[in-house]
UniProtKB/TrEMBL annotation:
This is Omega-hydroxypalmitate O-feruloyl transferase. Belongs to the plant acyltransferase family. One of its GO terms (molecular function) is acyltransferase activity, transferring groups other than amino-acyl groups. It comes from Digitaria exilis. Keywords: Acyltransferase, Transferase. InterPro entries: CAT-like_dom_sf, Plant_Fungal_Acyltransferase. PANTHER family: HXXXD-TYPE ACYL-TRANSFERASE FAMILY PROTEIN, TRICHOTHECENE 3-O-ACETYLTRANSFERASE. Signal peptide: none annotated. It holds the Pfam family Transferase.
Length: 492
């Protein structure tokens, strides 16, 4: 079993180089991209898609860096706003993107005193804060490549939530991998940056009672203090095996009701989480809540044009759905009944009208920053689930797939709700990674349950070994030769 060293002592990243890379297509005219109203809900919050690669069997790090540098101009030809800068408009005070081809940032670093196998993957956020390097608030894209003593490396695609949600970030990385391997993008992979499809009505029209309750101004007076927020939670990185997801799905589907309705993967795992939360809450609170970030791309389908625009839309198209229930009843309910409650909650909104009302509501509230009320952590305990990506993000840039993918966010608000973000394993084997920020009691319950569904990620699971065991690379090599990515989905 690989040993773990003290991350704080040994993990230091030295910046080797930092450069700006511009789009190569000189025919693209400079312009200003006005963000959509849905982009203004998260506003300017930095976030990244972080991946880990073992040492490639035939490629050295300098070659990898050269490949990223050579491929970035072509990517920016298709994702031109990411070569720009995020600027605050002086008259409105709102962010916009100045697309003048100032260049995306490419940062190369090295952590020569640490091996990837030595990192504490059960508490990856502690490592990420040291691996991921700071970048300017105005930077639209910072690509950070860091080498380690074992020959493996990490890549962080760092940007701002005002430009993308998790699905759009996955689209960018997948498109870049396609460009690197084939030199071109298929028609279905071409990104859509047109924010005009999410325009407010004139005059705006929405249910004030519903949306005013769903969002709260991001004001310190409406949040718990910083010590309470920081001390309330632990951060964990779990993996959920495909067999456990399938088992939960069978359990959550129950008996065949005759119409072929079965719990989806997200519904089944959410039902399991909700029952676990209710058990932890016990008699301390009468009720508890679950929430789900719902991707609108699969739900805005009123016309062929809208479906086509949403398929490769780069921006934010998400909304949160929350359901509260009795903690006692949840403990007593069978898993299929809880899964049915999850399914009904997610399906309840009329999404075409809901997203339009959300766009209209923001139009009249965009001078102030808001957060979804459930995330504040006031009221009954809440866990919010985000299922990122309908299929695995393609991380093969020509030197093998990543063994770990984890979205991260730099949101600094004092939020006190639990959060679990699942992503498909880039191997395409049907397993998930789950980045969790939860109460210690809930983490302990998940990790003590048998058979365990949420298992802490380890270097052994990822196939990583310390340099002293370089000869024993069978697991890592098998990861690199994994079968072709399948179309396993994470449908809500």
């Amino acid at each position: 079993m690989a040993s773990t060293i003290a991350v704080d002592e040994h993990l230091h990243v030295r910046v080797v180089s930092r450069r700006l890379v511009k789009a190569s297509d000189s025919s693209i005219k400079p312009h200003v991209l006005a963000v959509s109203n849905l982009d203004l809900i998260p506003q300017t919050t930095q976030g990244s898609l972080f991946v880990i690669y073992p040492k490639p069997p035939t490629t050295d790090f300098n070659t990898i860096v050269a490949a990223f540098e050579a491929g970035l101009p072509s990517l920016l030809n298709h994702f031109f706003p990411f070569a720009g800068r995020i600027v605050t408009d002086r008259s409105s005070g709102l962010p916009e993107v100045h697309c003048n081809n100032q260049g995306a940032e490419l940062v190369v670093g090295e952590a020569t005193a640490a091996a990837l196998a030595s990192l504490d993957y059960g508490n990856l956020s502690k490592c990420l804060r040291k691996i991921q390097l700071p970048y300017g608030e105005d930077m639209a894209l910072s690509v950070q490549v860091v080498s380690f003593a074992c020959g493996g490396f990490t890549v962080a695609w760092s940007t701002n939530h005002v430009l993308v949600d998790a699905s759009a970030m996955s689209l960018l990385v997948t498109a870049w991998s396609e460009l690197m391997r084939s030199g071109t993008l298929a028609a279905g992979s071409l990104p859509n940056h047109d924010r005009s499809i999410l325009r407010p009505r004139v005059p705006p029209s929405y249910s004030a009672a519903v949306l005013d309750e769903a969002f709260t101004p991001l004001d310190p007076r409406r949040q718990v203090n910083v010590l309470t927020a920081e001390q309330s939670f632990v951060e964990r990185l779990y993996f959920i095996e495909a067999s456990d997801i399938a088992r939960l799905r069978e359990m959550a589907s129950g008996r065949d009701d005759g119409n072929g309705t079965r719990a989806t993967r997200v519904q089944a795992v959410s039902a399991y989480l909700w029952k676990a939360l209710a058990t932890v809450v016990g008699m301390a609170d009468a009720r508890c809540r679950m929430g789900w970030w719902v991707n609108g791309r699969q739900r805005l389908t009123s016309s062929p044009e809208l479906r086509a625009a949403m398929r490769s839309y780069v921006g934010n198209v998400v909304t949160v759905v929350v359901k509260e229930a009795s903690a006692d009843e949840l403990q007593r309910m069978a898993l299929p009944d809880v899964a049915a409650m999850v399914r009904e909650a997610i399906a309840a909104p009329a999404y075409e009208e809901h997203f339009q009302e959300l766009v209209d509501w923001v139009e009249e509230h965009k001078t102030q920053r808001y957060v979804d009320t459930a995330s504040l952590g006031l009221g009954s305990p809440t866990v919010i689930v985000s299922a990122g990506g309908a299929s695995p993000t393609d991380t093969d840039f020509g030197f093998g797939r990543a063994v770990l993918l984890a979205p991260t966010s730099a949101l600094t608000a004092r939020l006190c709700s639990g959060y679990v973000q699942t992503v498909a394993n880039p191997s395409g084997d049907g397993s998930w990674f789950a980045n969790a920020v939860v109460w210690p009691r809930l983490a302990a319950a998940l990790e003590a349950d048998e058979p365990r569904v949420f298992k802490p990620v380890t270097a052994e699971y990822l196939g990583l070994v310390l340099p002293a065991r370089k000869s024993d690379m069978s697991v890592s090599d098998s990861k690199l030769s994994a079968p072709k990515l399948d179309s396993i989905t994470c449908e809500l």
